[in-house]
Amino acid sequence: MRRKVFAGIALSIILYAFFGIYVINDLPEKSEATVQNGIMTLNASELENRNIVPLVGEWSCYPNLFIDPKPNEDVFATYADQKILVEIPKKIPDYQTDYEKGHGYATYRAVIEVPSDGLYGIKTDNIRWSYRIFINGELVAERGRIADNGEDDKATYLKASAFGKSHDGKVEIVIQVTNFATPSTGFVGPVVFGTADSVVQYEKGLLFAQSAVIAGFFVLGALSLIRFIYDRRQSYHFYFALFCISSGVYHSMIGEGFFDLLFPDLGLLAFLGIKFPLFYLMAFLYLMFLHRYFDNSLSPVWLRIHAAFLLIGTAFLILPESLYHVFSISFVTYKVLVFLFGTFPCLYIFLAAMRAFLQKKDGAEYVLIMSASFLSYALLLAFSSFLDTRIGNLPIALFIATTFAMSLMFSYQEFRLLKRSEMLSEKLIHYDQTKQSFILRTSRKIRRPIFGILNVSQALMEGREGALNIEQQNGLMTIHKEAEELSGIIEEILDAHTIQSRDLKLSFNAFGIDGLSDVIGEMQYLIPRTGDVQIINRLPETFPMLRGDENRIKQVLYSLISNAAKMTSRGEIVIGAEVVKGEALISVVDSGIEGEVLKKLISEISPVQGNESESKDGKFGIGFDICKNLIELHGGTFYIHSDYGIGTVFSFTLPLAESEAPVAENHSIKVQKAVLDRLIPGKNGLTLLIVSEDYEAIKKLSETLNHMDYTIILVGTGERALNRLEEQKVDLVISDMVLPDMSGIEVAEHMRERFDKVMLPIFILTAAGQNQVLKNRFSEEVNDFLPKPVPFETLHKKIIGIQTQTKRVTLCGSFIFT
C-alpha cells in the first residue's frame, strides 16, 4: 500500500505539471475586459478589485513598421490602411511569410480607457526579442536594441516595467518589437496593466517568488555539500549539491532574469551558450546522484552516452548565429534538436528511478518523487525555453515538491542510520557482555591453577620438599614471580569488572590526607617520565579527615598522576586539595593532556598504553571511567576540564569525616634521633633491618615484630642502613619507598651489589598500592612489595617463608657472600 501511495504521488506531480501548462497557455485568460479592436475600457471596480488586468485580445499591429508615437497627437491615422488586428499573446502573426529564417518587426498599439487620470503602469512578460515601450507618446522603457535589419538588432531576455500618466482618461500603450529570426515575433506572454502601486506590488511578488526558489536551491545545495564534507563516503550528496547549485543558477536565467540583470550587456547567443549547457549539466549531475545513491547501479555505458549528450548539446549552443545558415539549420530545427537533447536525459532519469522503485531498492520511493518533480521541472523549463510556452508559478510548486521529497529522503536516511546504529549498539553491547562473561569465566578458571603454582613454588622455595641449591632456588623464584604477575593481571581484570558493575564492597573509614602525600612521594619512583616534568605536592599541611576506602582513593590518585605524567613532556603536575561546600575537592593539574588525546583517554576503558621505551610493563593505572565509578561509589563527583595549550584539570570530591574528627597532619611525624640506630634484641634467631623515618610506621611495625620475638635494627636513612649491613649480619631488610637521602629502590640496588635475593631478602613498603607494577619493574632488586601499613598475617607469612627458605639454602651449602 505504501509503495502505491508513492507511485501515485509521483504520477500526480507529472500530471500536475502538464495540466498546469495547458491551463496557463490554452485556456482563455480570466478577464472581464479584453482588448477589442485595439481598445480596452476599464471601470474603477476592475482596477480596484483585480489590482492588475492582463491586456489580452485584439491589439492593433503595424507589420514591418516602426511608428514613433507623439504626445497628444494621433500619428497612427496615417497608417490606418496598414493596420491589422493580432490576437495577443497566443497567435503567430501570419504576415511573416518566411518567419523561420527571416527578420521581422512590427509596432503594436492598445488604448486603455481608465475611470480617472493618474499614474499607471504595465509589466511585460516574454517579448521576442528586443522592444521599446511608449506610454502616451513618451518613451518609458527599452530592452535590447530594435532595428529594421538583423545586423543591427540586439536581442535580450529582459522584462520591463513602465509607468506613465493617463491623459483625458486614456492610456496609449505602443510597443515596437523585433523578432530576431524567431517564429513568434511579439508577445509570448501577456502584458499586465494597473495602477502604478498595483504594478509595483505585482513585480515585487514575482521577484520574491523567484528569489525564494533560487535561494531554496542554494540552501539545499549547501546542506548537501555539508553532508558530503561530514561524510565523504556518501558521494551522492556531492552530486546532489552541484545539481541544486546549478539549478539555482539556471533558475536565475529565467523568469525575471536575475542573471541578465547582472550581465545586461551579454549577447543573446552568449546567454544561450551558458543557459542551455547548464540545463544539460543539471540532468547529468542528477543522473550521477542516482548512480551514486543506488550504489553505482546505473550502466556506465549510459553514463558515457549522457556525458556525450552534454558535450554535443553544448557544442550546438555555442555555435555562432552565422553557422546556422552555413549548415542550413533553421532556428526552429535548431531548437528542436536542443529540446531533444535535453528531454532524453530527463526521461532516462525518471526511468532509472522507476526501475529502482520496481526493484524495491532502499529509499527508492523518495527518489522516485524527487525524480518525478525534476522531470516535470525540466520539461517545464524546456517548454518555456524552446517552445515559447508560459509556465507561470509551476516551478515554485515543483520546487516545493522536490524539497519535500528530499526532506523525506534525508529523514528516512537518518532514521535508517539511527536504526542501524541502534542495532549495532545492541550487538556491541551483547558482544561486550559475551566478551566480559568469557573473560570472567576464563580468569576465574585460570586463577585456580595459578594459585596452585604459587603454593607449590612457595613450598619448594621454603624447602618443604628438601633443600635446594642456589640455582634451583633462583629458578623457582622466577617461576613464582611470573605466576604472581599473571595472578596480578587476573586480579586486575576481576577488580575492574567489579568496579564497573558497581558490585565493589568498600571499607569506609576516616583517614588523613597524609596517606595521599605518601602516594605523591612515591610517584617519582613509580612512573617513568621523559622531559622536564615536576610533580608538586601542594596538599595542605593540615586538612580535615576524609571518609572512604583509603586504598581505593590512593588507587584513583595514582592513576590520575600517572596518566598526567605520561602525557606531559614539559611542565608541572600539581596536586592540591581544598574544602568546598562541606566536601574535600582534590585536584590534579597538568600541562600536557589536551584535545584529541583527552578524548581518547576519556573514551577508553583503560588509559593510553605506553610504548616499550616509556614503560616496561605498559601500565599506567586504571582507566578514567573506573576512577569515576570509584569516586561515585564514595558519594563524590568526578570532574574533567581541559584548556587547549594549557593543560587539564582532573578533580574529584570526597565526603569529610564527622566534624568532631581531628585534623590530620599532612606530613609524617619524624623519628626522634634517640629512636634511630636502635637494636631491639630478640630470641627468634632472625635479624631484621627496618629503614624508615616515619614514626607511626616504625611504631606499628616494631610492635608487630617484637610480638614475633625477632631482633630488630631501626635506622632512618638509606646510608645508615648500608653502614649497618657492613657492621652486622642481617637476614631481612624492610624499607620505606621514600627515605630522606635516597629511595628504597636505591638502597636495594646497593645491597644487591653484595647479596643476591635468596641470601638477603628485601621488602619495600609502599603506600601507592601498585605492588604488582613495582614487582614487574624492580624484580631483580626487591623480593616483594608490601602495602603500608602491612597486615600482621601477611608480614608473618612472608617472614616465615623467608626464614625457612634461608635455612634450607644454608643446609644445602650454598650460603655464599660475594
Number of strands: 28
Bin the helical content.
40-55%
Low-confidence stretches: 94-102, 322-327, 603-621, 660-674, 810-818
Mean pLDDT reading: 76
Largest sheet: 7 strands, mixed
Taken from the alpha-carbon principal axes, the silhouette is elongated
Q: Termini, distance in Å? A: 94 Å
Portion of residues in beta strands equals 15-25%
Determine the number of helices (DSSP H or I, runs of at least 4 residues).
21
Structural class: alpha+beta
Q: Rg, please?
A: 47 Å
Q: Which characteristics define this entry?
A:
818 residues, alpha+beta, 7-stranded mixed β-sheet, 6-stranded mixed β-sheet, 48% helix, disordered C terminus
Task: Summarize the structure in words.
This protein is 48% helix and 18% strand. With 818 residues, it is α+β, with helices and mostly antiparallel strands. Helix 7 (300-317) packs antiparallel against helix 9 (331-358). Residues 94-102, 322-327, 603-621, 660-674 and 810-818 have low confidence and may be disordered. The chain is built from 21 helices and 28 strands. Strands 1, 3, 4, 5, 8, 9 and 11 form a 7-stranded mixed beta sheet that branches.
Secondary-structure topology with pairs:
Blueprint: H1 2-25, E1 39-41, H2 44-50, E2 52-54, E3 57-63, E4 84-88, E5 105-113, E6 119-123, E7 127-128, E8 130-135, E9 138-143, E10 161-165, E11 170-178, E12 186-187, E13 192-195, H3 196-230, H4 236-251, H5 258-262, H6 268-293, H7 300-317, H8 321-326, H9 331-358, H10 364-386, H11 394-461, H12 470-500, E14 509-511, H13 514-526, E15 532-538, E16 542-544, E17 546-548, H14 550-567, E18 570-580, E19 583-590, H15 595-603, H16 624-633, E20 638-643, E21 647-655, E22 663-665, E23 678-680, E24 687-691, H17 695-707, E25 711-715, H18 718-727, E26 732-736, H19 744-752, E27 762-766, H20 771-777, E28 784-787, H21 792-811
Parallel strand pairs: 1-5, 15-18, 24-25, 24-26, 26-27, 27-28
Antiparallel strand pairs: 2-13, 3-4, 3-5, 5-11, 6-10, 6-13, 7-12, 8-9, 8-11, 14-17, 16-22, 18-19, 19-21, 20-21, 23-25
